[in-house]
Every structure is written in C-alpha cells, then in structure tokens.
Amino acid sequence: MLDLTGKNALVTGIANNRSIAWGIAQQLHAAGANIGVTYLPDDKGRFEKKVAELVEPLQPTLFLPCNVQDEPQVEATFKTVQEKWGKLDILIHCLAFATKESLSGDFSSVSLQDFAQAIEISAYSLISLSRAAKPLMTEAGSIVTLTYVGGARVIPNYNTMGIAKAALEMNVRYLAAELGAQNVRVNAISAGPIRTLASSAIGGILDAIHHVEKVAPLKRTVTQIEVGNAAAFLCSDLSSGITGQILYVDAGYEIMGM
Ligand SMILES: NC(=O)c1ccc[n+]([C@@H]2O[C@H](COP(=O)([O-])OP(=O)(O)OC[C@H]3O[C@@H](n4cnc5c(N)ncnc54)[C@H](O)[C@@H]3O)[C@@H](O)[C@H]2O)c1
Question: Which of 82, 218, 244, 248 has the most crowded Cβ, counting Cβ within 10 A?
C-alpha cells in the first residue's frame, strides 16, 4: 500500500495552483506525509503570501524562503529542517529557470550568462540541495526531480533548457550512485508538457501540448496530479528497488517515432 505516514517531505517549486510541485505536494500529503514547503522569495513578499494561502490546507509544518542561487539561504533551510524535524525522508526538486530569450529562436544565439544561469538554477541546484539533504536522510530517503523529453531529444525552442535537463538527468545518475550506499534513492520524472508559469516562457508551448495530444498513445497530455501520483510512488517503499531512473509520465509520448 502506498503509505507515507511518518515521512517528512520537503517540497520546492510551488509558485501557484498550476505548479507541478503543487500536484506533488497534494499527493504526498494525501498519502500521509508531513509536508514542508519552500518558496522563491521576492522583494515585495507577494510569492510568500500567495504560496502560503495555497498550501494552507496541507498544514505544512515548515514554510521557508529558499532561492537556490543563495547558498546561505539553502544552508539555513536545511538547518531549520534539522532543528524542527530531526530527519528528512523526501526531497522534491521541482524548479527551473531560463530567460525567455534562451527559450526561443536560434539555439546558438544564447549568451554565456543566460546559459550559465539556466544550468545553475535548473541543474546545479539538485546537487546543492542533495548535498544539504544528505546528512539529514538518516533513515533512507528519496529525492525526486522533474525533467522533460527536451533534455534527451530536440524539441523546438526548448534550447538552453534542453542542455540543463540533460545535465540534470546525469546529476540524477551520479547522485544515485553516490547516495545509494546510505539507502537514499534519486530519480527523475520526465513529465509531458503542462501549462504552468515556467512553461509559458517556452516559445510555442501550446503547439507542443497540441502535438502530444495528437501523437501520444493516450491522445492527451498529463496533469499535475498524475505527476504527483508518480512522485508519491517514487517516494514510497513501493519503489524501494528503483534508483537513478528517468520515469516518463507523459501519456506515452516518449515511445513514438512519428
Ligand atoms: N510544465 C511543463 O510542461 C514541464 C514539463 C516537464 C518538466 N517540467 C519541470 O517541472 C519543474 C516545475 O516547473 P512547472 O512547470 O511546475 O512551473 P512553475 O513555474 O510552477 O515552477 C517553477 C518553480 O521554479 C521556482 N524557481 C525558479 N527560480 C528559482 C530559484 N532561483 N530558487 C528557487 N526556486 C526557483 C519558481 O519559484 C517556481 O516555483 C521544472 O523543473 C520544469 O522544468 C515542467
């Protein structure tokens, strides 16, 4: 049975009710997990207020600012996790960023600055969060991140983010190899295209969704809740033999050649 009772789950990446991280947090909570939420702070505190109101029904026992580009803030986040929870069982890495300019047009036109920023936020952050989580995952653990088929194959306009996702997917394998000895599993879900704040920055995202609706075996794309269900599975003992994998939750799109 899928049961996450007694597990402490830290969920990053909730921006609004369309966020994939929101679908995941709801399903982890439904399976009995104790939820902690981090949000990206902004100067006016708007994100904080919006996310706090949204997650209120899940009664999170931690609610912390965490900009992954701010190392001291990352350290402070996990220090609080240690003080308040003692141990961490589940880490959901569900965040990414690339400038709008690097998500359309010619792939080769990306600047070093935009490229480096996308890799730092979208791929390196899995390493830094996992490093901070490692000493807290004392009773085994599960780390889950989110990727997209554009990290394995060319998808129009995904450009720089495709490189970031390719790096992220290799991070999953190297981290799984390192952390396996302490029974911490690391996996990625490769989700089909979903309309969210982040995906709206990708040129032609609606075309990508309509293409999947036509071509995927299930003739549709997926929902945040379906991704959340797969994440709950990967965080539970039902998946105890699975690590270092990329699980496609994409209505089957990935198997199609045409
Ligand atoms: N939407 C899709 O079609 C799709 C498909 C496959 C994978 N994904 C991946 O799912 C994940 C979540 O994206 P989403 O589509 O739910 O969009 P979203 O906009 O709801 O979530 C992106 C999150 O990243 C956070 N973020 C950005 N920069 C950050 C930083 N410096 N520090 C901390 N957090 C930061 C934002 O605050 C936001 O909560 C991303 O990794 C995305 O690439 C999305």
Answer: 248
Gap from CA of 197 to ligand 1 centroid (Å): 8
Q: Across residues 53-76, what is the average pLDDT?
A: 98
Is 253 an annotated catalytic residue? no
CA distances from 127 to 109, 169, 249 (A): 27, 11, 23
Strands in 62-65's sheet, in edge-to-edge order, are: 62-65, 34-39, 8-11, 90-93, 141-147, 184-191, 246-249
pLDDT tens for 184-221 read 999 999 999 999 999 999 988 999 999 999 999 999 99
Q: Cα of 12 to ligand 1 centre, how many Å?
A: 9
Which is nearest to 251 in space by CA: 196, 214, 203? 214
Q: What is the model's pLDDT at position 46?
A: 87
Residue 116 parent element (H or E) = helix 112-119
Residue nearest to atom 10 of ligand 1 (CA): 146
How far is residue 166 CA from its own chain's centroid? 14
Confirm whether 39 is a catalytic residue. no
Beta strands in 148-221 (DSSP E): 184-191
Cβ of residue 236 lying under 6 Å from some atom of ligand 1 = no
Domains of the chain: 8-250 (3.40.50.720)
Amino acid identity for residue 176 in this structure: A
Q: DSSP string of 202-247? A: STTHHHHHHHHHHHSTTSS---HHHHHHHHHHHHSGGGTT--S-EE
Q: Which residue has the tokens 């807290």?
A: 136
- What residue type is 131 in one-letter code? R
Task: Give the DSSP per-residue string, 6-75.
Answer: T-EEEE----STT-HHHHHHHHHHHTT-EEEEEE---TT-HHHHHHHHHHGGG--SEEEE--TT-HHHHH
143 pLDDT more than 90? yes
